Amino acid sequence: MVAVNRSPRSTGDEDAPVLITEAAPSYEDEHAARKRKYMLMMGMRFPCLVLAGIFYHTWWLALLFIVISIPLPWVAVLIANDRPPRKSEKVNRYQRNAKAIEHREHRIIDG
């Protein structure tokens, strides 16, 4: 049983949910955000190729659009597959002192 600390000047919101600001987003929300990023980056590839075709008279600008469009699929896949890093958790490891097992002297009993 967990004790909850309530102030004497309670406002009647005892049943209100607690806001957790450090909670990670759900897997579904995270996956949807990664899918949006992927679709946006892959959607930028086609306009780059169209702009390269429009500016074919200016060879350096057309080449720039083509060079930009080449790594877009690779970058989009890397970003879509990237998950946020896991939180580092401090592992509680039990370490005992060898002297703590027996600290007293032994008595010898003569028989």
Quaternary organisation of the protein chains = single chain
Alpha-carbon distance between the two ends:
54 Å
Overall pLDDT level: 77
Largest sheet: none
Work out the number of β strands: 0
Question: How do the helices and strands follow one another from N- to C-terminus?
Answer: HHH
Q: Count helical runs.
A: 3
Which class best fits the helix and strand makeup?
Answer: mainly alpha
Helix content: 40-55%
β-strand percent reads: under 5%
Based on CA atoms alone, the radius of gyration comes out at: 32 Å
Show unreliable segments.
1-8
Walkthrough of the structure:
The protein is mostly helical and 111 residues long. It has a domain at 28-81. Helix content is 44%, strand content 0%. The protein contains three helices and no strands. The chain has helices at residues 27-54, 59-69, 72-81. Helix 1 (27-54) packs antiparallel against helix 2 (59-69). It is elongated, with a radius of gyration of 32 Å. The chain starts with 26 loop residues before the first helix and ends in a 30-residue tail after the last helix. The model is unreliable at 1-8 (pLDDT under 50).
